[in-house]
Design a protein that fits this description.
With about 80 residues, the protein is an all-alpha fold. It contains four helices and no strands. The protein has helices at about 10-25, 25-35, 40-50, 55-70. The N and C termini lie far apart (about 65 Å).
């Protein structure tokens, strides 16, 4: 049986509702991120960001960032 073709936006909205319902918002976003290619030019942006820094300065920045992400959270 041939049905009427629904607009793609309608199908997308229904699919997202189903994913949210069955997976939850976090896992839905993680799932959808598999299919996005991002934007911009990572190589050029990275080069512009660190072009005037030495390797040791970049390494220090990375280690400092990692420390903020792995330090335990204390409730006061």
């Amino acid at each position: 049986m041939m049905g009427e073709t629904r607009p793609l936006t309608e199908i997308t909205q229904e699919a997202l509702r189903l994913l949210y319902r069955d997976l939850g918002i976090v896992d839905t976003v993680r799932f959808l991120n598999q299919f996005t290619t991002g934007f911009g030019n990572y190589t050029e942006e990275r080069r512009a960001l660190i072009e005037n820094q030495t390797f040791d300065e970049v390494l220090a920045d990375v280690l400092a960032f990692q420390a903020t992400r792995t330090s335990p959270q204390h409730d006061s």
